[in-house]
Structures are given as structure tokens and as C-alpha cells.
Specification:
The chain is of the alpha+beta class. The protein has 16 helices and 35 strands. The protein is about 30% helix and about 25% strand. α10 packs across α12.
């Protein structure tokens, strides 16, 4: 099995053969994203592999940079500006800013410019009746306008189409007649859910992704075939579940943002092996730190996610919060003369100053190199030699009155503080107490910084899993194949509603069976999003019993809602009626997962000895900050550690693609699967 995670700085590739994990790390190439994927696949070899699981931010990067194909958008007449208005929400930091504009609006960078958004005369009411029939002559005239503008795809979202899709389906036929065989997405297929704006934005993203991923997938499949790959290519979706590539291309909006979620799935899988079901997951890479929560062994999943503020996609997605804090975060001087770290990043090109690729600004990597945490000769498995003098020069070139030692020390503290603040905010947002949670440290820079974060956040402990630099890619070898279906149907839950609800679930499960194949061994999981009658927001993922939906099943659904509502809000209103809004089915195909073998314990004739000693500079007391003598720290090769080993900090554990820094006052214990557990003394 092979998996690849395309990140902002590096592309991580892992292969699992005979229980042994093989790894490769390649710099991401923004000019040709498939190039590092195929380069890493060639390095590990793909012949004989059964699956190639792929996670990428390729689609997300296209949206962020607005390198998008020209598409048209058809909406009910009078509603074409819905894409510009969004939900009319402002971020907290822009509440009092009169100059703030929505990033995807016409005043900034629209996904679809206004002249390509056309109104269609038709109207279906909320109960499915036709108020105005589709005006086909007017629709053809609008499509002729789009044809003259040279659009290469179309997204269609009509009012209340999730109730009756007739007009959307006929409009798609007209698109074929006027524009030919161009990709066309209709909201009643892409996202047949209530709330028009999110349905519209999801449909637009789907049409864009069909065009963006078509060439990408074809190039990737051909490149893998040329390397001898004959297995199944799977894409990971936003919940890090796997979908065969041909199925993924039917609804590619689901795969627009998948990389960070894979690390959460890997954390949940590994946490179950070591008996730690409650995790704060932090993936610190070169560009960002992606933070998520696993509670009771399950990741937090939401029904939507945002590509940008208020640019919403209706897809099940693991809740991941990204902050601009990574190994490539730039160290700068603020307007008041303070040391700032991030959110800007040096990326892979030109990279940190110590890379010697033209970067002149210091980064967090330069900071850790100056301190002595990173070995310049063994960095990235020895494939990249770091230049300490370039890092020193970058710090010296900062325009500040701080001494060199202060610049390095404060840059390190700010890098740690930024991550700690992000982790703490995510914990509070999700209502969890960090003191009860284990901090899972992965990503190339995670083990280097997160043990210091532990002291600031006061979490229970830090766990560094095996192969932390490629842990998100390993998550793709820990995921199931999952197919989902959902339908919105406002239904007050009463015994009389049972037949309607039963039809909804039966139809969705039948369609999923057709997609998957009737011979496949599959587990169906039902849920619904509901609210108390009169509420405008829903409580998602309320469990629904399997089998035929009768009056008893409806009673169970109501009881499940009140239990779930109480668990999430702390309140319970048993006397109030419940209304179901969106009904959902997940079809789960269990797949083979990566295994982590147990590590041998140290024999009596095998002493624990460090590989060498280093001096950690600039981390002393504030009064002695100019003292460059440093503190002695033992350096161990991770491959030489054994289960049960205990080492007092300060200590550094070096491995090919990552470095773990255990600070003073901390203790390192090696777990039975080779995990590094860092606790306070």
C-alpha cells in the first residue's frame, strides 16, 4: 500500500510492505503538483501495490490563488448575486472595519464574475409545487450569452431544487444543447440540502473542481501507469475517508481539502493502539500548524467547512483549524519593534535562510538551528545540509536593537507561544479541558516545538508517534472507504412521519448500493441533523436506528436528539417537538490499515548511551540571555531506543525526517509501539 500527502512545503510519500514503512519526502512543486507525487512514488516503487491513496490541497490552492477556469452560474431570476452576498457574516476582527470586503465577492476576487452569473425565469416553492414554469426560450438566450463569453463549465442552483430537481435537470439538458459536452454541476445532485447559499457555493466549487482535477487525475493516472502501478487509485475526502478516483470525480468538491484531515485519522488510529482516546492533534509542517480534536477515539466532524471566510462547502469534514506557524514561518520586526513569527512563510522556495536557496529572512527552522536543536548535517535525513552562518546573518540583518541572543530566544518563544495559543483556542472552542488530553505531535516540526507547548497549554502529555514527519500520509493507510448520501426534508418527527422518513433512508441506501456494488461487505450508518421546532440552527449527527422506520424508530430518533442536544449544549427540552432537516447515510467499507509493531525492550547487555552531546544556546534564564555557552544536551538516535527507556531532559532525539526536543524539567519515556511520550518530571 502506498499513500501520498501533498503539503504546502513538502510532498510526503509512504509505502507499507510486509509490515515495514518506507518513506520519501519531496519538495512540493507548485508549477506541476503531480511531479513530486510521481517522483516520490518512483523512489519507493509502485509495482505490485494494491492501492495508492492520495490527499492533496491542489483544489484548495487553486481557489486561494484564483487560478480558476471560467465557468457560468445559473440561478433563479433575482438570485444571481447570492454568490456575492454569501451569508453576510463578518469575521470578528473586521466588525469595525469599513473597508473590509468578502474575499470572494465582486469587489475582491469573485469565483464567478457577475457577468457570468445569469438569472433564469422559473420558481419552485418550498413544498415542491411549481409557481413559475421554466422559461426555456429565456434560458437558451442566457446560455448563448455564456457561450459567447467562452465558459468551459456551468454550475446550476435554483430555488428549492433540493425538493424538486425537475427544472435543474431540464436546464442541464439545455446546457448540453447550447454549450456542448462541458462539465455541468446541478445543486440537486451535488448538495440536495436546504439553505440556498451553501448549496450554491458547493455547486460552484464542484464545477470548478471537475475542471481542475480532470487533467490532474489523468496526468497522475498516466504517470503511475508508466511506473508500473496497476492497483486502485483512491482520493481522500475532507473527512479523510477514501473514495475511488472515478467516484471522486463524480463529486470532486468532497476532495478539495483533504491533507490535514488525514493526520487526525492517523492520530485517532494510533491513539486507540496506545490507549489514549482523547487527543489534541497538532501537525506542524513547514507552512502551517493544523490543529484538531479526537474525543473518545473519534475525530470531531462537521457538516460543512470554509475554504475562505464565509466560502462554505457542504461536505462532511474533520474540524481542522490552521494557523500560520511552521518551520518556515518568517521572523520579522513589528511596527512597535517587537519580534513577530509568522504567519508569513518562506515555503520550500526559497525556504529558510539556512537552506542556501536564496532566502534572506530568518525562520523558525533558522531559530532552532541557531539554538542547536537541529543538526545541520543530519537534517532531512542528511539530504540537505544547513548553513549556520546564513542563519546567523539573517538574524543579524533584522532591524532591531535586540542582541543576537535576544533575537533568537524571543523568536523561539514566539513560535512556541503561537502554537500554544492555537491549541488552547481549539480546545476551548470544542469545550475540552487540555489537562485531560494528550497532545499528539507530528509533522516535520511538531516534535521539535510541541514538548515546549505542553508546558504552556498544561496538557497531560505529548506523544510523538513513529514517522512523525510523514504521519498524515500514514493516516491515509488508516482510513476506511466511505460513501455518503444526504437529503434535506423538513419533517416534524411524529409517528405519521415514519413512512416518509423510511422512504428517504431506503432510497439513499439503495443508491449507495448501486454505486458500491451489491456484493460488497458494507456497514450502513444513519444519522440526521435536527432542531427543536422554531430553531434556525441544527444539531448534527443524531443517531438513527437501522432497519425499517416505524413509529418506535421515530420515538428513538426523538430520544436520541434530546440526548445529543443535552450532551452538546447542557440543556434538555423533552416537551418540545423535534424537526428533522437533513437525513444522512454513510456506507463504510472496512479496509486494511497500517500496523505499528511493538518495539523490543532493552536487554541487560545493551546499555542506553547517547550518540553525542550538543550545546543548547539562548535558552537560559532571562538575566543570562547573552550567555552563549549553552547547556549540554544528550542526542539519541531514535532507531537505537527501546521500549521502556526513560531519559531526563534536556535531550534531543534525532531521526531521518524529524527532531524531538525534550526540555529541562521534562522526562522522555519510550512506549511499546516506539512512541516517544514526554511528561513533566
Amino acid at each position: 500500500m502506498i499513500a501520498v500527502d501533498v503539503g504546502g512545503t513538502f510532498t510526503d510519500v509512504v509505502a507499507l510492505r510486509d509490515g515495514v514503512v518506507h518513506t520519501a519526502k519531496v519538495s512540493t512543486d507548485y508549477t506541476d503538483v503531480t511531479k513530486p507525487v510521481l517522483e516520490g512514488a518512483a523512489a519507493l516503487g509502485v509495482e505490485g501495490s494494491r492501492v495508492f491513496n492520495h490527499a492533496s490541497t491542489h483544489g484548495l490552492n487553486a481557489v486561494i490563488t484564483r487560478r480558476l477556469p471560467k465557468i457560468g452560474f445559473l440561478a433563479t431570476e433575482g438570485h444571481r448575486d447570492i454568490l456575492d452576498m454569501g451569508r453576510v457574516w463578518r469575521p470578528a476582527e473586521a466588525m469595525l472595519d469599513p473597508h473590509w470586503r468578502r474575499s470572494f465577492g465582486d469587489a475582491a476576487r469573485p469565483l464567478v464574475p457577475r457577468y457570468l452569473r445569469r438569472g433564469i425565469r422559473e420558481r419552485i416553492t418550498a413544498d415542491g409545487s411549481v409557481l413559475f414554469a421554466l422559461d426555456e426560450a429565456q434560458a437558451r438566450a442566457e446560455l448563448e450569452v455564456l457561450r459567447g463569453c467562452g465558459v468551459v463549465g456551468v454550475a446550476i442552483c435554483l430555488i428549492n431544487a433540493y425538493v424538486d430537481r425537475t427544472h435543474e435537470e431540464r436546464l442541464r439538458e439545455l446546457v448540453r444543447e447550447v454549450l456542448g459536452d462541458v462539465p455541468c454541476s446541478i445543486s440537486s445532485e451535488v448538495s440536495p440540502l436546504a439553505k440556498e447559499y451553501t448549496r450554491a457555493s458547493t455547486t460552484v466549487v464542484d464545477a470548478l473542481m471537475k475542471l481542475i482535477y480532470a487533467d490532474y487525475t489523468a496526468t497522475l493516472e498516466k504517470g503511475l501507469a508508466d511506473l508500473g502501478f496497476t492497483g486502485q487509485l483512491n482520493f481522500a475526502d475532507c473527512a479523510a475517508t477514501l473514495v475511488p478516483s472515478n467516484r471522486a470525480m463524480e463529486q470532486p468538491f468532497r476532495i478539495v481539502f483533504s491533507g490535514p484531515a488525514a493526520g487526525t485519522v492517523a492520530s485517532a488510529h494510533f491513539g486507540s493502539l496506545i490507549g489514549e482516546p482523547d487527543l489534541l492533534c497538532a501537525d506542524v509542517g513547514g507552512t502551517s500548524c493544523d490543529i484538531s480534536v479526537v474525543a473518545g477515539g473519534k475525530p470531531y466532524v462537521d457538516t460543512t467547512f470554509e475554504l475562505e471566510h464565509d466560502l462554505v462547502v457542504n461536505a462532511l469534514a474533520i474540524e481542522v483549524t490552521a494557523i500560520g506557524a511552521g518551520g518556515g514561518s518568517l521572523v520579522t520586526i513589528g511596527q512597535s519593534g517587537e519580534i513577530r513569527v509568522g504567519p508569513g512563510s518562506a515555503g520550500s522556495t526559497p525556504g529558510p535562510a539556512c537552506y542556501g536557496r536564496g532566502g534572506t529572512g530568518p525562520t523558525t527552522t533558522d531559530t532552532c538551528l541557531m539554538i542547536g536543536i537541529i543538526d545541520p548535517d543530519t537534517f532531512a535525513g542528511g539530504n540537505l545540509s544547513l548553513d549556520v552562518e546564513r542563519a546567523r546573518a539573517a538574524f543579524e540583518n533584522l532591524r532591531t536593537e535586540f542582541t543576537l541572543a535576544q533575537r533568537v530566544r524571543y523568536a523561539y518563544e514566539m513560535a512556541v507561544h503561537n502554537i500554544a495559543e492555537g491549541v488552547f483556542n481549539v480546545a476551548i472552542k470544542n469545550g475540552v479541558d487540555p489537562r485531560d488530553y494528550t497532545l499528539m505531535a507530528y509533522g516535520a516540526a511538531g516534535p521539535m516545538l510541541l514538548p515546549a507547548v505542553m508546558d504552556a497549554v498544561h496538557c497531560k502529555q505529548v506523544v510523538v508517534p513513529p514517522n512523525p514527519g510523514l504521519f498524515s500520509a500514514l493516516g491515509l493507510l488508516s482510513a476506511d472507504q466511505v460513501f455518503t448520501a444526504s437529503r434535506s426534508a423538513y419533517t416534524v418527527l411524529t409517528p405519521e412521519a415514519a413512512p416518509r422518513i423510511d422512504v428517504l433512508f431506503t432510497e439513499m441506501e439503495s443508491r449507495l448500493r448501486e454505486r458500491i456494488g451489491f456484493d460488497a461487505t458494507v456497514t450502513f450508518e444513519r444519522s440526521y441533523d435536527g432542531h427543536l421546532v422554531g430553531q434556525s440552527w441544527e444539531t448534527p449527527f443524531v443517531p438513527v436506528p437501522g432497519g425499517a422506520v416505524d413509529a418506535d424508530a421515530v420515538d428513538a430518533m426523538i430520544a436520541s436528539f434530546h440526548d445529543t442536544y443535552q450532551e452538546r449544549s447542557g440543556n434538555r427540552f423533552d416537551t418540545m417537538p423535534v424537526e428533522g432537516v437533513t437525513f444522512r447515510v454513510r456506507a463504510v467499507l472496512d479496509t486494511e490499515k497500517v500496523e505499528f509493531p511493538e518495539l523490543a525492550r532493552r536487554g541487560a547487555d545493551e546499555p542506553l548511551t547517547p550518540a553525542r552531546f550538543v550545546r543548547l544556546r539562548y535558552l537560559g534564564d532571562l538575566d543570562a540571555i547573552d550567555d552563549d555557552t549553552g547547556r549540554a544536551a544528550a542526542v539519541y538516535d531514535r532507531a537505537a531506543l527501546r521500549a521502556g527507556d526513560e531519559i531526563e531532559g534536556p535531550v534531543i532525539v534525532d531521526e531521518g525526517l524529524s527532531t524531538t526536543h525534550v526540555g529541562e524539567g521534562q522526562r522522555l519515556v519510550v512506549g511499546r509501539h516506539g512512541e516517544l511520550v514526554v511528561r513533566r518530571k
